[in-house]
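WP5 quarterly update. Target: Methyltransferase-like protein 22. Source organism: Stephania japonica. Length: 363 aa.
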Amino acid sequence: MHKGKGANVLGRQPRLSGFISLAMEGECSSSHPSSSNGADEPDHQVMSEIHLGCPPFSSGLHISHFTFPCPPVSDAERLRCVGGEIEQNIDLDEDGDLVLTRKGRPSNNVRLKIQHKITSSIPSVGLQVWKAELVLADFLLHKMFTSSDFDGVVALELGAGTGLLGILLAHVAKTVFLTDRGNEVLDNCYTNVHLNSQIFGDHQVSVYVRELDWNNQWPPIPGSSQLSGGERYKFSWSEEEIDEAMGASILLAADVIYSDELTDALFNTLQSLMSQGFPKVLYLALEKRYNFSLSDLNVVANGYSHFRSYLKNEEELRHAGIRPSRCFVGERNDYESIPQYIREYDRGNDVEIWQIKHISATN
Ligand SMILES: C[S@@+](CC[C@H](N)C(=O)[O-])C[C@H]1O[C@@H](n2cnc3c(N)ncnc32)[C@H](O)[C@@H]1O
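Structure tokens (predicted):
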């Protein structure tokens, strides 16, 4: 896959912005040319840098492969990996990409097949793979290689898009809920789960694609749906599934911070999800996309300060002797020292990974 470029700067501050805007990028050639960046127009097309090497001018669905070394599924296998085999065997191919192989065994790579669009309108960005999803996937893979933290967990991904992250986690998890909104995105995610069913192997895992729109209440009414047609039933929740999701310990979200209104809706849902049932940890990856802001008269990362305004620092609260009755605490996870397991992208340095918990008077 083609190498992408870093953060892009768009000309003015749109309501939803920061994606590669086809109207602004000469090399991407716009199917919806516009004299402005047009990002607040519903038909305006945007493109994830992950897809820069895909066939140009294609507006349909495309299958890309994402390759990484197979994570261990037992402690015995893990011991062999953390014994140094994985990290000592890092080679570079002719493009300078990392090639990871396990010592003393045949190369045991997993190749995920992900169906996606190469460009989309902003309401359909979930049909593309975004860089934050791949950085978080690397982070999860590293945890799978070095710990049993995710073995047998129940996990739920918010704004799952193509479903890549949850499909990868299904390698070791007990149950994964891939959630998003809209017929098209959910249908595509469902296709991807089926395209990759062989990676689950003998491991018993349940993977559900379910509707979870942050503008709606959590928990949902069993069987209810905002979708049209057969998808109403295909992606709605049963009572047992809601109970199981309440017991999830891991939440995942990648590239879901790009508009303040959306961030408000997301945190509203997180408040409901994380204040009920089993204690949950959210791993959230965001890409800082820089735009010139008229209100700040400066180049700022879109939506970033609004996102940060939701988080308190647990350490600082403890030092100050403050015990808040209800809040989110967040800590940024360093991933620079983690190898790049997934070959087909340029990691860059504009993605942050946050580990977020919800504190309430009862925990
Ligand atoms: C930029 S995409 C990221 C997709 C995927 N996580 C990735 O990184 O490749 C943002 C995702 O958030 C989803 N989303 C946006 N608004 C939403 C809402 N109100 N409720 C649920 N999901 C939403 C979109 O459908 C899309 O899948």
